[in-house]
Amino acid sequence: MTTLTDLAGWLANEPASDDVKAVVAVVAGACAEISKVVASGAILGNLGAAGQVNVQDEEQKKLDIITNDILRDALNGCPLVAGLASEELEVIETTGAVGGFLVTFDPLDGSSNIDVNVSVGTIFSILPAPAGVAPSEADFLLPGRRQVAAGYAVYGPQTMLVLTLSQGVVAFTLDADGAWLLTHGQVAISADTAEFAINMSNQRHWAEPVRGYIDGCLQGKAGPRGKNFNMRWVASMVADVHRILMRGGIFLYPWDAREPDKPGKLRLLYEANPMSLIVERAGGRSTDGVNPILDIQPTKLHQRVPVVLGSANEVALVAEMAAR
Ligand code: AHG
Ligand code: MN
Ligand code: MN
Fold it and tell me: For the whole model, what pTM was predicted?
């Protein structure tokens, strides 16, 4: 049997600073803990609704709150983390530490899937904290390019952790003893694909460029693209993005006309930025339709953005159609 490198062994050779690596290790530990509560499901009585809504007016599941608390406790216990922001918390939280890092996270992505035992995940982003002062909300509003690390855990048939720190993307698999073992040394997204992921039930609400792009895919070999496309939609961004990292594809959660004051469904700081950094580092592309997501200057904590990411040539085509 081959011996696989564990997370600590891999981090030892990663060029990022020891401090960044220490924060990544704390988040990885929290994700291993989350994997256990997710896997226990109904046994621990953790499925179902919590009976309250979050700041985005979305119904919270019990596990949204449990997983949020696991990450909060872990980060509060880390002297290198000055503040945190979560999809499930209305305002930022400071830890009392000064300097170091800020962490933003979606503690349980795809939580509408949890009660039906479909893959869910945790997404996180690590940003530099201001020096010498306790962080304020404004300090979290950094473009995605400023991230010093990003990652996600996917709780699927296997629990996996996908990371980018200073360069490249690697993936670990959680073993039965709770260790993260390096199973995917360098992840690269193929430039071309014939697989798209979008919630087709929103088709009538989309803007013209996205309608045109998807219509071209649906026409298959006889249409303008000259090839047949396959469609997948897990409705957990982590699972859809993970599939794209493993075998290519394009993921779209575009602007739609349902709620004009919401420019998209996904959140810039907890979902779009970390996933965009991972996708770009794996050789893919990411855009809001006009600009690279990583160049967006955030204006508010819970900001939403349209998201198109994945195989580079396919994302480029959507951006080109949007610019016409
Ligand atoms: P969350 O569970 O954190 O609120 O995120 C759900 C997101 C994302 O994971 C997924 O891609 C999308 O919502 C699914 O949306 P639809 O319900 O429109 O399919
Ligand atoms: Mn989410
Ligand atoms: Mn969530």
Answer: 0.97
Domain stop point among 162, 184, 206: 184
- 16 and 150 in a single domain? The answer is yes
Best mutation site among 65, 109, 233, 267 for ligand 1 pocket (most ligand atoms within 8 Å of CB): 109
One domain, residues 71 and 172: yes
pLDDT of residue 95: 98
pLDDT at residue 260 in the model? 83
Q: With respect to residue 281, please indicate whether it lies within any of the assigned structural domains.
A: yes
Ligand 1 pocket by Cβ (under 6 Å): 58, 87, 106, 109-112, 199, 235-237, 253, 265
Backbone Cα Rg of the chain: 19
Which two three-digit tokens encode residue 135? 């962080």
- Alpha helices per DSSP H over the chain: 7-12, 18-40, 62-76, 208-218, 237-247, 273-281, 312-323
Is the predicted pLDDT of residue 20 greater than 70, yes or no?
yes
Q: How far from chain centre, in Å, is Cα 34?
A: 16
The CA distance from 140 to 84, in Å, is: 9
Q: In terms of domains, do 217 and 314 share one?
A: yes
**Ligand 1 atom nearest to 110, measured from its CA:** 2
- Same domain membership, residue 226 and residue 178: no
Q: How many domains does the chain have?
A: 2
Tell me, what's the pLDDT at 67?
98
Contact indicator for 199, 110 with CB cutoff of 8 Å: no
Rounded to 10 deg, the angle between the 18-40 and 62-76 helix axes is 150
Q: Do 282 and 319 belong together in one domain?
A: yes
Looking at residue 151, the DSSP 8-state letter turns out to be E
Query: Ligand 1 centre from 237 Cα, in Å?
Result: 6
Asked if 100 and 19 touch (Cβ cutoff 8 Å), the reply is yes
Check the annotation: does 280 bind a ligand. no
**Is 2 inside any structural domain?**
no
Task: Please give the helix or strand (H or E) that residue 172 lies within, else none.
Answer: strand 170-174
CA dihedral 264, 267, 273, 279 (to 10 degrees): -60
